[in-house]
Design brief:
The complex is a heterodimer of chains A (about 500) and B (about 500).
Chain A (H helix, E strand, L loop, with lengths): L3 E3 L5 H16 L5 H25 L7 E10 L4 E7 L4 H17 L8 H20 L3 H22 L4 H30 L14 H18 L8 H8 L2 H26 L1 H27 L4 H21 L3 H32 L15 H14 L6 H16 L1 H26 L16 H19 L2 H19 L15
Chain B lengths: L1 E3 L2 H18 L4 H27 L3 E10 L2 E7 L1 H27 L5 H19 L4 H19 L5 H33 L19 H14 L11 H4 L5 H35 L2 H21 L4 H21 L3 H32 L10 H4 L1 H15 L6 H14 L4 H28 L16 H19 L2 H11 L1
Parallel strand pairs in B: 1-2
Antiparallel strand pairs in B: 2-3
Helix pairs in contact in B: 1-2, 1-4, 2-3, 2-4, 3-4, 3-9, 3-12, 3-17, 3-18, 4-5, 4-9, 5-6, 5-9, 6-7, 7-9, 9-11, 9-12, 10-11, 10-16, 11-12, 12-14, 12-15, 12-17, 12-18, 14-16, 14-17, 15-16
The chains are: A mainly alpha (about 500), B mainly alpha (about 500).
Chain lengths: ~500, ~500
């Protein structure tokens, strides 16, 4: 257990993982819809507050897993309940806990039928998502990974739009197919190592063939989740049909599980295979960036536009991860957080329009700048953030990813640049249409500016847009040591040993 | 000596605060315009108060945010930034009055939005002037692009949206597609984005791959598309759909000058004179922009719409500035940089005149202006003075530019004759497209049956500003020393 700093005080991680689950159980007893909303908000806020000490107490100088807890679970199979966070998972955990209260707020009036069941699903989602990010035992990880699927499926299938059945089944089948391969890889590693500790599987000298197969199994599972081009087709369908909170959770947190998987499993466990497949993955990322950008440019449906923009943005994340240097990986991790904040906020924005006009079409929301000044102000800032305007969060992430890419492979990086231009094109197009429209805008009935609750939903995200944009140090510091440790783990297996170590940040 | 000074922050924030105040006082037009004017005056005062320190040879600096190692939001005021900051802040004061007269005279809609965005554009321009590194400059450069979109699209008709779309596509496309990769590569190569503190050395280490430097240079030259260098100039004529005060201030002063300022700042303080001459980039750039100078003048000749003619004249004149700097001789650089000032005062006068003519008699085409000079003598007199400046005739400001540029060309070791030919040819073309306007106005005969009796000068709030800028054009032609001290301090 030399990888874990055991926490003997208050078990923060267990608390945030199981509090929402306990909240969900209590929720089932509540009969009143309004009370159900308030209860869900209360639980998620408490979880967020409990999670804050994780950031304050985190030792940024150590690459170890901190706040660790480890208990025997099924001794016969050597399965344990082991959790801990390092610089790679900490920010994702915090983002999850901070976004969930906003999701409850964002569904306050959007969800009118079966409110209690909806909130139960949200709380179970939160438990399982936090479980995935904290797990250090393969079995616990896998259980949490699969547990996410069911409430997410329900969110789309029950509270979704007109084509909810198609979308939810497609989502379910795609991710399930990936999970099966994940299970195969986990068992293969167990047979090899005799333990389910995730960190124990890292740094072992596996044969090249074994690495290749394990890598491919992991890769497929996570690439579907990211989703990387060409495994992305479930995403637009799911996003379009999901209710607002579902889209936000999907975009902000679920997609990050794929890239988190790359960082936690593919890179440290199978480094030689990572190098073998790196060129192909870099080009796949570029393909995703360009494909996502072009497709987003052609959309008339706001949710589809943002969904395809996610494909492009996540392409930048995988690009940053697989250039395998510190700048790229730090940029990718920051971009994961940024995408969570910005795209989450954009989905909230679209949801707010949908609540008013019951349409997601851009043409049904043109030229509303005059009628909803506060709304378009928020939308403008989040759109600018999405297109990586300097001074916003995405700029810093994209800058680091591209700086890492240019250092590794100038051709790949240069091919990703048009993706940045496309991002400006489709976001400014959306913004122009919504704020200004054309010479003859339609009269849209039933429009009123943002309510206080809606402003409270968006404002915290806007704070993070500018905080990360102008002063990203507090966010980069926590990941710095862990990323350097990860790069060192991988670099040992580089074809030309040592060449990557030079790329580490000072 | 480097002095930490909060004046820089004050200067940059003043237009931002001004714009917020304007937005909140939309219901009371007089109060709203008062805020604009106070902000402009306060900004000018703040910029002016920095001048003594710069004359002493000091450099003011102010750190705001640290983004990454080697990347920060930092402001600096040196002689180079003062050239642009003085121009932008002083002309904003004049333009506030002019745009009040114009917008009220035509009873334009959405005047609050207009005034707020106007102030935001100045916010961006002042930010660019005072930026200490490439990132800060890029940040404010993009702010200018976004905040001027509502100004260009102001009329909200088919033409307005079309022009504004072209505008934003050109400007953000080049900034993201060319400047962004250049900036990232410079960061990867050097580990910093800070400008050098002199114009010689640049920031590249000695062992850097020279092909890479040339690529980066080309990316920057074309990427700052606000500089209007062909082939990325096309947004400028399209942006003339904007109301005339916008064309005047933004497309003679703020936006296009942000472009040339950024270009020349990067040429001198990122690449440096030594690197540029070692790689022969100066001469190549000089010839490249010479094409723009000549071709844009020829296009201007063919335009009958006054604003379109002025737009192409701007495209041509902006390249003078880059040409001067590209000569890489002290006098050439001085000639280029002083043209930022000279062109600003003269061109804003010309645009002001075009707007005054439009408000007074709703005429846009030069061919309709025959004999109009007798009805609007002050406006056309100002127009004549400013045209002389554009042509480069003494004693108006443009003469100083032409003189310095010619001296700079003669200081060159080679290609002297070619550059002199370009300057002479463009001067003749300037005469060819400016002189007829004044001539027709004063000596042309009105068309049969048309009487100009009912036409009077535009409101005073328009005529006075254009007279002021015309007079200043003459003053800085006769006493160029005030601004020349800054320009001379740049070349050391």
């Amino acid at each position: 257990m030399d990888f874990l700093v055991i926490n003997n005080g208050f078990p923060f991680l267990s608390a945030i993982i199981f509090l929402p689950l306990a909240g969900a159980l209590v929720q089932m007893l509540i009969r009143d819809d309004n009370l159900a909303r308030i209860w869900a908000l209360l639980v998620t806020v408490v979880v967020a507050v409990v999670s804050l000490p994780l950031y304050i107490g985190f030792d940024t100088s150590s690459p170890m897993y901190q706040f660790g807890e480890s208990h025997q679970w099924i001794p016969a199979l050597n399965i344990t309940y082991t959790v801990g966070v390092d610089g790679i998972s900490l920010l994702l955990v915090l983002m999850t806990t901070l976004i969930m209260p906003l999701c409850v707020l964002g569904s306050w009036s959007y969800i009118q039928k079966r409110v209690r069941s909806f909130m139960v699903c949200l709380l179970i989602m939160e438990s399982s998502m936090l479980g995935v990010f904290c797990a250090l035992d393969f079995v616990f990880f896998y259980i949490m990974w699969e547990a996410m699927l069911i409430p997410m499926y329900l969110l789309i299938a029950i509270w979704g739009g007109p084509r909810k059945t198609y979308a939810s089944i497609k989502f379910f089948l795609y991710t399930l197919a990936g999970s099966v391969l994940l299970l195969v890889a986990i068992i293969a590693l167990y047979v090899k190592n005799g333990t389910f500790y995730i960190p124990a599987a890292m740094g072992q000298d596996y044969s090249a063939a074994f690495q290749t197969w394990v890598f491919l199994a992991f890769f497929l599972a996570f690439a579907i989740k990211v989703p990387m081009f060409p495994f992305h087709t479930w995403l637009p369908a799911a996003h379009v049909e999901a209710p607002t909170a579902g889209s936000v959770i999907l975009a902000s947190i679920l997609l990050k599980m794929g890239t988190y998987g790359f960082l936690r499993f593919c890179l440290p466990i199978t480094p030689a295979a990572t190098f073998q497949f790196m060129p192909a993955i870099l080009w796949l990322s570029v393909a995703g960036i360009l494909y996502g950008g072009f497709t987003a440019l052609a959309q008339h449906d706001m949710k589809k536009l943002i969904a395809y923009s996610s494909v492009g943005h996540m392409g930048f994340v995988t690009l940053g991860i697989f250039v395998l240097n510190s700048r790229g990986i730090e940029g990718a991790m920051l971009q994961m957080i940024n995408h969570g904040i910005t795209t989450g906020a954009l989905f909230f924005c679209v949801g707010m329009i949908y609540e008013r006009t019951h349409s997601r079409e851009i043409r049904d929301a043109t030229g509303i700048g005059k009628l909803m000044p506060w709304y378009v102000t928020f939308l403008a800032f989040f759109s600018l953030s999405s297109l990586a305007f300097p001074g916003t969060n995405s700029f810093v992430g994209e800058f680091l990813v591209l700086a890492g890419s240019f250092a590794e492979n100038k051709v790949v990086a240069a091919c990703a640049i048009p993706g940045a231009v496309l991002a400006a094109a489709y976001m400014l197009r959306l913004l122009q249409k919504v704020v200004w429209g054309g010479p003859d805008n339609p009269q849209i009935p039933g429009l009123f500016d943002l309510r206080m609750r809606e402003i409270v939903t968006l404002a915290p995200l806007l704070v993070f847009v500018f905080w990360i944009g102008f002063s990203p140090a507090p966010f980069l510091e926590v990941m710095h040591t862990s990323v350097n440790h990860l790069v060192a783990q991988v670099a040992d297996h580089a074809p030309a040993a040592g060449s990557l170590a030079l790329n580490m940040l000072p | 000596m480097e002095i930490e000074s909060a004046k820089l922050l004050t200067a940059v924030l003043t237009p931002l605060v001004g714009s917020i105040l304007v937005m909140n006082t939309g219901r009371k037009p007089n109060l709203r315009e008062t805020w604009s004017f106070l902000a402009a005056l306060f900004l000018f005062g703040t910029v002016l108060s920095m001048a003594p320190a710069i004359w002493r040879g000091d450099r003011l600096i102010f750190h705001i945010f640290k983004i990454l190692p080697g990347i920060s939001v930092t402001l600096r005021a040196d002689a180079f930034s003062m050239v642009f900051a003085m121009v932008a802040s002083s002309l904003w004061c004049v333009a506030v009055f002019y745009s009040m007269g114009y917008m009220r005279g035509l009873e334009e809609h959405a005047q609050t939005r207009f005034n707020a965005c106007f102030a935001l554009a100045i916010f961006g321009a002042v930010g660019v002037a005072f930026s200490d590194n490439l990132f800060t400059m890029y940040l404010f450069y993009e702010i200018v692009s976004v905040c001027t979109y509502p100004l260009v699209a102001h009329h909200q008709d088919e033409e307005g949206y079309f022009g504004a779309r072209k505008y934003i596509v050109y400007l953000t496309g080049t900034a993201k597609g060319l400047v962004l990769p250049a900036m990232i590569l410079i960061y990867v190569l050097t580990g910093t984005l800070d400008f050098a503190d002199n114009i010689r050395t640049g920031i590249f280490p000695a062992d850097v791959n020279s092909t890479m430097v040339v690529i980066l240079y080309v990316l920057c030259l074309l990427g700052f598309a606000k500089n209007g260098v062909m082939p990325v100039h096309n947004w400028l004529p399209s942006a003339m759909v904007a109301p005339t005060p916008v064309s005047a201030l933004l497309h003679a002063v703020a936006v296009v000058k942000v472009g040339v300022f950024s270009t020349t700042r990067v040429m001198l303080y990122v690449f440096g004179v030594d690197t540029m001459s070692a790689l022969n980039l100066g001469t190549a750039t000089a010839f490249f922009v010479s094409f723009t100078i000549i071709v844009a003048s020829v296009i201007a000749l063919s335009k009958d719409n006054l604003k379109a003619r002025l737009a192409y004249s701007t495209v041509s004149q902006l390249s003078y500035i880059i040409l001067g700097v590209a000569l890489l001789t002290p006098d050439g650089i001085q000639g280029g940089l002083i043209h930022i000032v000279n062109h600003a005062f003269s061109k804003i006068t010309l645009f002001f005149c075009a707007g005054a003519i439009y408000v007074a008699c709703h005429k846009k085409d030069i061919s309709e202006m025959c004999g109009l000079g007798r009805a609007m003598p002050f406006t056309f007199a100002a127009f004549a003075i400013a045209s002389l400046s554009m042509i480069g005739a003494p004693p108006v400001a443009g003469f100083v530019t032409k003189w310095k540029l010619l001296v700079g060309a003669m200081e060159m070791n080679s290609h002297t004759l070619a550059i002199i030919c370009v300057l002479l040819a463009s001067t003749l073309l300037n005469v060819a497209y400016f002189a007829p306007v004044t001539f027709k106005a004063f000596f042309g005969k009105p068309p049969e049956g048309v009487k100009y009796d009912s036409i009077q000068e535009a409101p005073l709030s328009m005529v006075v500003p254009l007279m002021i800028t015309a007079v200043i054009s003459v003053i800085i032609g006769i006493y160029p020393d005030f601004m020349m001290t800054f320009v001379k301090a740049v070349t050391g």
